[in-house]
Amino acid sequence: MSDVRERLARSPTLEGQPGLVDDAARIFDFVQFLLDDDDHLTPTGNLNAAAKSKLRARIAELISEQVAGRGELSDLLDPRPVQVEVGP
Amino acid sequence: MISRVRIKGFRRFADETLDLGPGLNFVEGDNNAGKTSILYAIEYALFGRVEGFKNQAALLGPDAKGMGVELELTGRDGQRYRLQRAHIKPPRSKTKLEGYFTLKLLGKTADEPERYVLSSDFQDREEALALKLQELTGITRRLFGIAVHMRQGEIARILEGAPELDIVLGVTAAVIADEELRALALESEKKAATLPVIQESARRVGLERDQMTTRKDDAEAGIADLRGEFAGLEGKVAELRAADLARAPLVTAVATLGRAEDAARDAARRLDDHHERVTEVRARGTRDDSNAKLAHAELRQQVIDDERVRLRKETTTSDDERRNLDRTRGDLSGRIARREQLPQREGAACETCGAPIDAAHHAREVAAWRSELTTVDERLAAIAAALTLTQAATRQLDREERELAVTRSESTRQLSELADLDAAGDKVASTFATTTAALIAAALHGRIAASEPGEIGDAEDAKAVRARLATQVADQQRIAVEQRARAEAERNAIAGRVLQAESDVANLGARIADLERELATANTSIVELQTHARRAARLRTLATAFKDLQLSLRADASASLATSAHELHGALANTAGGTDAEFDRVIVDPAKYSVQVVPKHLGEEVPAALYEGGGHRLLLGLAMKLAVSRLVGRMPFVMLDEPTYGLDARHRAQLLERIAGLDVADQIVLITHDIDMQSAPTSQRVRVVRDGNHTRIQPSIPDIPTSTEDASHDAA
Question: Which of residues 556-595 of B touch A (CB under 8 A)?
Answer without folding.
Answer: 556-557, 560
